[in-house]
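ugh ok fine here u go
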Amino acid sequence: MSRRIGISLTLVLLVLPLLMACGQQAATRAPATATAASATSSAGSAQAATPAPVTIVLKNFAFDPKQVTVPVGTTVVWTNRDAASHTVTAGTRGSPSGLFDSGNLASGASFSFTFTKAGTYPYYCAIHAGMDGSVTVQ
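structure:
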C-alpha cells in the first residue's frame, strides 16, 4: 500500500508542474489576444477617421471645381493640367494669408495641403487674374 502511495505521490509531483505551466501559458495568452483586438479596433477607428483626399484640377485657366466643402483633416490636392504654370496661393488677390503657397506649378505638377481647422479658405493663382477658388472645411 505504501508503494502505491509513493507512486501516486511521484505522479502528482510530475504532473502538477505541467498543469501549472499550462495554466500560466493560457493566462499569458489571454491578455495578448485582448491587446491585439484592441489594437485592431483602434487602428480601424484611426483609418475610418481619415477623410479621403480631394482633387482640384487646374485646367482652362480655372480651378475645377472652384469651390469644395470637406471635413476637417482632409488633404486637398491641386493638379495642373494646363500647359501654362499656375500657383495655388492662400488668401485673396492682393492679400495672401500665408497659410499655403504652391509656388509655380508646371504642367502635370501637383500641390497638396491638409486642412486641420474648420473655416473657409479662399485661394487664387498669383499669375493669372480671375483664377480663384475656396475650400470650406467643416
